[in-house]
Design brief:
Largest sheet: 7 strands, mixed
Bound molecules: NADP nicotinamide-adenine-dinucleotide phosphate
Structural class: alpha/beta
Strand content: 15-25%
Strand order of the largest sheet: 8-11-7-12-15-14-13
Number of helices: 12
Order of helices and strands: EHEHHEEHEHEHEHEHEEEEHHEHEEH
CATH topology of the largest domain: Dihydrodipicolinate Reductase, domain 2
CATH superfamily of the largest domain: Dihydrodipicolinate Reductase, domain 2
CATH architecture of the largest domain: 2-Layer Sandwich
Number of domains: 2
Radius of gyration: 19 Å
Distance between the termini: 18 Å
Helix content: 25-40%
Length: 345
């Protein structure tokens, strides 16, 4: 068996960084060799630099690892980034210039003209763009956590019936705000009807993801999206109420069928983090729920329920997906697996 590929985690001490460590513990292809974060954490043992909040114990082999600075002298050629957006842009560019392949959760490079905004089940064909980047290494980005669940649910509808318009209202978990995130007195027993920048991300990212790459540039898909984003007192798992207007008429049964049958390249290649099924449709009116369904497919699956006709659009339904697994670290690991399977890394 060939040796595992060494990877670094940038922003290893944060909410997404911790999730990377947890998910990569027994990964068949990747081995976490380096942990990096800010100067506040660099030089400390990982267990001292981070406040571990995952539900599994901090793996012993990482607790004594010394956290490094996010400087380009790291040995690993692949870096998973869970960096804060205030610093991610420059640090990720420096790593890519130095020959590293950076797969990022931060927003900074998502709309660069030569950077794919990647969900492997949805737009794997955009990955080729990495070959034309002017970096010695490369950058690929993961979309926003709520965009990912939405785009996966929309993909079978887009392919089979065409999409004209989407309206989405989110109920997003507190872990999406990072660690320590919101003060408890703001969020317990409360709903906050604003998440800075989130609505703009949800209204633009899906159009790049569903768009095409032609004549050396991304051309957005032409459907319209309106989003309203709310923070709710749930720890993990984003719920989204969606209305869609389709280009061609179809039935409820046909929609459920295309969701249940949806598979893509990650499932065909049987990539280690590819969920199968990708989408699970629940017939019970009370589902999906974050506490019950966020770990479907090891946190990589998308739960959908409550499909019904809509008096303004054609149909409406509810989506649930895990924001720090499918929507962040797990989604990024799946991108790296696809890049390896396609010989890019
Ligand atoms: P977080 O908990 O606040 O963690 C941020 C990380 O960035 C920490 O490791 C922190 O290190 C590091 N950092 C901060 N300033 C730095 C600097 N000057 N130099 C180097 N490292 C620095 O945030 P998060 O929730 O994990 O999110 C990380 C990124 O993923 C963000 O860009 C976020 O928008 C995105 N994202 C998050 C989610 C989610 O559900 N949480 C989902 C999708 C995408 P120290 O501990 O040393 O300060």
């Amino acid at each position: 068996m060939s040796a595992k590929i060494s990877v670094a985690i940038l922003g290893a001490t944060g909410s997404v960084g911790q999730r990377f460590i947890e998910l990569l513990l027994n990964h068949p292809w990747f081995e976490v060799a380096e942990l990096a974060a800010s100067d506040r954490s660099a030089g400390k043992k990982y267990s001292e630099a981070t406040n571990w909040v995952m539900q599994t114990p901090l793996p012993e082999k990482y607790s004594n690892m010394i956290v490094k600075k996010c400087e380009t002298n790291l040995q690993s050629r692949i870096a998973f980034s869970g960096l804060d957006a205030s610093v991610a842009g420059e640090i990720e560019t420096a790593f890519a210039d130095a020959g590293c392949f950076v797969i990022s959760n931060a927003r900074n490079h998502r709309f660069d003209a030569d950077v794919p905004l990647m969900i492997p089940e949805v737009n794997h064909n955009h990955l080729d763009v990495v070959k034309f980047q002017n970096y010695k290494g490369g950058i690929v980005t993961n979309p926003n956590c709520s965009t990912i669940g939405l785009a996966i649910a929309l993909k079978p509808l887009y392919d089979n019936f065409g999409l004209e318009a989407v309206n989405v209202v989110t109920m997003q978990a507190v872990s999406g705000a990072g660690y320590p995130g919101l003060p408890s007195l703001d969020i317990i027993d409360n709903v906050i009807p604003f998440i800075g920048g989130e609505e703009a991300k949800m209204e633009t990212e899906p159009r790049k993801i569903f768009g095409s790459f032609m004549n050396n540039k991304f051309v957005d898909a032409d459907f319209k999206i309106s989003a309203q984003c709310n923070r709710v007192g749930v720890i993990d798992g984003h719920t989204e109420c969606v209305q869609v207007k389709l280009k061609s008429k179809t039935s409820k049964e046909e929609i459920i069928k295309v969701w249940n049958e949806f598979k893509s390249i990650p499932q065909e290649l049987a990539l280690p983090f590819a969920p199968n099924p990708v989408i699970t449709y629940f017939k019970e009116d009370k589902y999906p729920q974050p506490r019950v369904h966020r770990n479907l497919g090891n946190g990589m699956g998308v739960a959908i329920g409550r499909l019904r006709e809509d008096s303004l659009f054609d149909y409406k339904f509810v989506i649930l997906s895990h924001n720090t697994i499918r929507g962040a670290a797990g989604g990024t690991i799946l991108i790296a697996e696809l890049m390896k399977a396609q010989g890019i890394i």
